[in-house]
Protein 1
Amino acid sequence: MAAYPISVHPLQSPAGSDIDFGAKIEDQQFATIRDALYRHHVIIFKNQHMLSPKAQYELTRRFDPASDNYGHGKTLDAKRSILHPDLKTIPHQPQVQVIGNGFIPSYEGLENVQLRHPHHRTFHRDHIPDDKDYDFTRFYRWHIDAALYDLYPPLVTTLMAVQVPKGRRQTLLYDDGSDETLDVPLGTTAFVSGERMFDLLSPEDQEFVRSSKIEYAPHPYIWMSPARALSTGLGLHSEGRELPDSELPPIDAKKIMIFPMAWKNPVTGKLALQIHPSAVRRIHCADGKVIDDLTRVRDIVYKLQRPAISPQYVYAHDWEEGDVVLFNNRGVLHSVVGAFKPDEVRLFRQCNLAASEPPQ
């Protein structure tokens, strides 16, 4: 990405002072980028082939200068985490991850890497038949980029397309009895607006969302690892497959995350319904009651979120090499999509940083 243009303004001397030096540097372009991100939620820069991992990290950190650690912390090191197979850390810039599909002989200090694009077959309970796999696809898992234990959710995620296979499109199936489908580019990243998700609710549901909080499971990506997702990718089947606390890494009660259901946009003040549906465990209601029946918790969250993932509300980005996409991680949900052939190489870089403050 090109260097940001700056403006230089001489300091105004206080009354009675004869100081004739000093200037204030203002980065107008970043202010514009930040404003655009929070007003539009997903912003795209084209032809950024020269953006280095270091520059990507520095751009990401501009949104939260007090943050420095990768958004999932050390959870990628846990072999039982569902995230472990999907991301590779760049050795010289550990806040930046490599994701994609296919064999990469050498890239940014990584050697002989086999990337695996997440496929619904590994996470969903019910699968598209193998003989239709390259024609049809699913939302893999709707989510927010967040550890949801110990660390606060990142403000922003940056994604860069280094290598993109082209040529095919796929039909995305909801397979939930709605007959809804969506034509998507191969390997798209799908986004939906949390603000739209909130606005579609009835006044009663909006009040419930405004006044309720979600408690997330400890070590959620290990906890959920035996469970299986719904065909829409919007949460999990309740089959009692989640790991009990006794089979998780040590749990510190102070690190369990409880967040509002609705998160406020720092620029517009609008509310977004921001819930990671696969990691929910309990709902804390305004009257002090706690809903801890997992089946009921998931049913409530699903009914709140499902209207906003219908096709007319989904932005499916058609990636081109050199694209850098920034998205408001506290204002959208997103999902990996697509089924690649083994020789279709996809190479992306992802960066997000655990935030210095919780969502409000």
Protein 2
Amino acid sequence: MNDMPEQVLITEVLLRDGLQIEPVIVPTEDKLRLAYGFLEAGLTSLEIGSFVHPDKVPQMADTDRLAAELCAGESASLHTLVFNERGARRALDAGARHVRLIVSASDGHSRANAGVPTRQALERLRPAAELLTQAKVQLEATIATAFICPFDGETPPGRVVATAHQLADLGISVLHLGDTIGAASPWHIRRTLTAVQAELYDMPLGLHLHNTYGMASANVWEALHLGVRRFDAALGGVGGCPFAPGAAGNIATDDLVNLCHHAGIATGIDVDRLVALREELHARLGRKLDSALAAVPAAPVPLRPTAVPG
């Protein structure tokens, strides 16, 4: 256990990845209430929406309004997703200060998600990155299907490394690797992470995990031993990709916080407030949530301290 970190950064992605596939479109006012609730619970990083065409993902049609409301004077990192220059301009108009570029490592998913193969999707991101960099927006990036693609099968680590290099050239400060369909195992995590770490050893890495086959917590544990300190998660295990057949929800924030706290890893998140937010989410969605903790009345044993050291 001596290679475990003292703390990790959890980015709550419910408002984007969590809600983008829900059949019920959550009103903007409810999203704002959830966002402020997350901040009050101690989360310092939220993914609040995606600048995509509302006809493709109507659940994200209010991202401009969310960003304009939340980013004004807020000290937390509030991320929005951008796929092209048009999205970058919308992000700037809305006052976004933290943007994630996103591209798929596999051509099959890139065609489904962005309408073009990976190479062309990366070309589209260049003018977007230049525009955002000029505006001094903090740039991060996510590589979708970094481990397995629903169309192309296993993604070769070399392809992920090549994509990572091109994103690094765009000036990103953090790179996230996505298990978009939740099919990766700890072996996939180690194989690809170590390949990327060997080539981009100065780049902070994060993981965006889905839990389709129940492996997300095991993948977090593997990644922690490999030095990863950033993880995306969605409260209640909500989420999925509309362009990735078979993808289930994200690793649940409540389950991830529980895992970290039992291992003595601080998150800075107030567990009681998180539970209250989960109950609120359950009522708003009107369905059973997918996290393990949503099915039980309390954590099985007392948690260790939750405060971030220092």
Protein 3
Amino acid sequence: MATVTVTAKLHNSSLSRRKEWQHATRLYRDTKQFCIDGWENSDFDKSVTTASIDNDLYSAIQNQAIREAKSDHSKDGEVRYRESQPFAVNNQNWELDMTENGTVIVGFPCVSQWWYTPIEVYADIANEVHRLVDGDVDKTRLQVYRRGDDWFCTFNIEYDADTSGETPIGVDIGERHILAVTASGEDESMLVSGGEAKYVRRKYRSLRDTLSEAGALRARNRVGDKEQCRIKDLNHKLSRRLITFAEQFESPVIRIEDLEGIRVNSSWSGVHSWHFHQLQQFITYKAERAGIRVETVDAYQTSQRCSECGSIGTRDGDHFSCSECGRGRHSDLNASENIAQREGEPCTA
């Protein structure tokens, strides 16, 4: 299954439309925050429904906000949404159609009504858009968001694809090496040290402790914001390096571990303060923009098994050795080779 991201500008939107969409982004943020706060304060359990949401968003949008809040909370724990959020609906609650004069229209619910708005179909998305209009591909959720003075929508299309001739790129995310990457069958790899990530964590933890002891709580909160910015910047740089590495190969497909259980299974104490999910999101959307498919694979025993023969080997720090076939390999690169060799599921940002 191939997944392609389509981003299109909403064409010549009226002032009334833009005002309602902006209102919807704020309501969407508030809905997600309401859910997060309720779970953190044990006001209700994860089975919360739209009956508990007191705003004017269409129920389909409220349901999507609840789903996204659940996902964010399960991966990152307590979450604070400081900015308006792109509002979204699932694949069944929006549509794409073409008028008799060839204008492509996107339709989606919002607050007061469904809106039907023309989109600008650029050359690089025309094929995907027309395949969706013709019913040849499946669509995923739709997101609507603002950038500057313009409004955009983004969605994914999915279709069966011929995977022969692809170059699997296995990516292992860890502590000592934040990225260990192997291009299967190409004898090419990349290791990125996790030293900078650990330095950022130590630095800001020390600053927070010092400010807490001094009772400077506002300054402590600002330090937290600065740490988030540093982490976000580092994740952007890491994801860009990975995409650049992958682009040198013919028909690359990036395979990464399913990070759902990484906070539970990792022995690294710093895993709880590192945004693995954010890094995966950055990798995914940058890859999709570059036309590279991203898949998640089961992480079970990727660090314990030999990537050459599949036997359980021995890991000693950065070195992995296999007594069955005699192979020796950097332990994180061995894991990334195993990831590259596994069949994956489509991953979307």
